[in-house]
Each structure stands twice: as C-alpha cells, then as structure tokens.
Specification:
313 residues, alpha/beta, Arc Repressor Mutant, subunit A, D-Maltodextrin-Binding Protein, domain 2, seven-stranded mixed sheet, 13 helices, LysR_HTH_N, transcription, DNA-binding, WH-like_DNA-bd_sf, LysR family transcriptional regulator
Amino acid sequence: MTEPAGATGVPDPALAHRVPELGALELLLAVARLGSLGRAARETGVSQPAASGRIRSMEAQLGVTLLERSPRGSRLTPAGTLVTDWARRIVEAAEAFDAGVAALRDRRDSRLTVAASMTIAEYLLPSWLIALRTARPDTAVSLRAGNSAAVAALLLGGEADLGFVEGTGIPSGLDGTVIAHDRLLVVAAPGHPWARRRKPLAPAELAGARLILREPGSGTRQVLDVALDAYGGLAAPLLELASTTAVKAAAVSGAGPSVLSELAVGDELSARQLIEVPVDGVELSRALRAVWPKGARPTGPARELLTLTRARR
C-alpha cells in the first residue's frame, strides 16, 4: 500500500514548489478582504504591477484561476475562495510559529518569562502569545519549555514569571488556576493489533502493555501513573522520549502504542495515521493550569497573559 505523503515525517522535496510563498498568500487574503488588487497592493507594501504579477505567478503555480478582474475590482473565483480559506490557515499557522520562535529567543530586554510544559508550549501557547502581542505590542516574551517538573523548578528558582503545567495537581510551593481541560488518548498505528480491536482495553491491559511514553516528570506521565496505580502501575516503557512530537512520530511509525494529548493527535487521527483505542474504567482527563510562586500573584504582562488564556477557552 502506498504510504501517504508526509506519513513518515520525511519532508516532501516537491512541496516547496507546489505551495506559494507566504507573501503571495498574504496578498491573496488582502484582495479577498478589500475587493481590490490595488488596495491590497498598498496594504502589503508592493506596487500594483508587482501584486498583479504575484497573483498571476501563483495562478500558474497552482494551475487554477484565483481572481476575476474587472474595472470595478477583483473578485475571487470559486476556486479562489477555496484557496483563500486554505491560505488563511497557513498564514495563521505562520503567525503562531513566529510568535513561538520569537519567545524562545534569549532576549535581554524581555519583560516576561514564561515556562510551559511541552504540550501546552506546542499546541496552545503560540495563539496566546499572538493575542498578547496584540494587547501589549511592546512586551517582549521569553519562553522556557520543559516538562511540568521543570516548569515548577523554574518558577521556584525565580527564573520565570508565569508557568503552565498539565499534571494531576498544582506542584508544591506554587499557586495556580485551571485554564482548560484536556483528554489523554491511547493511540496506535493502523497496523497495530490494538487498532483492530472490537472491545475496549481493560485498565490492567493498558497498565501491563509496553508503551511509548514521555519521561517521568511530564504531565502526561503523572496522569497515567495515578490512573493506573490501582492496576499495578505502568509497565516498563517500550520507549521513553522527551517530547510529545518524538512520541507521536514513534507511534505513527508503528513502533508501538502510546498515550498522548488529544490536542497533539487531531491531525493524525483525521488522516488515520493513528487510531484511537478506547479504554474502559480509567480516567484519562486532566486539567491544564497556569501556575506561579505562592504569594506572588501575577501582575503586569503576566496577569495580562493569564487573562487572555481564560478569554480564549
């Protein structure tokens, strides 16, 4: 069976030739919003002839007509409407990527240092940082990412102003508040026997299986340890990896089953690169929390970021 493009995690070398550059997609979104190629050109800082050439190049690259041009302005074709919807997702993802990477830089002028566990840092924090940039454009942010235990250590050591964790409770020495809820899913590649089961797993079956897992100290591992303690605890892991992305890639490759956040596996479940395996009788939901040192309620930009996380539930 032919494997879907990208299923192995290896970049497709032809992809760069098929996907338009980001500037062209931003121009197309501006045309869709303003209804005029000339106004879109001015908004994006290019001349009208250059904008027209960029749209035509994109049409040639994609092999579809995107705009109907007339003296009254430019209107999207039906194909152009679809491409614009897809382009919007790419541009939003690029903005989230930019916000996340900017926060990772060690900037001397940073006024806010955020520590976040890996799942939150990967899947939730970028959109919060974009919102913070809009609300406080002059606030520079540094991000420290690690497991939940590492986040607690950074806060207690005075190396971060605000933290985000995913464990079973608030780490010792910290205060916090629930900002969202998450569910852990047992997943396996389509070729694994669990993916073809007709009956849910029993808790003891899950506890006794050799799984691909995050390291001790991660929020995911804490929840699993507590949930399966009554069934003998977790068996020795098949693989123990330090990031959600690495665990997910190993599971997709067929190395073995895993337990991952629902936030992390949505695309893989939709593409059937991973299959959710139901489990009976075990609670795998968890709260996601903002945390800070006891007696040091967040103020300034940290308080603003905390408010934004609640507003975007």
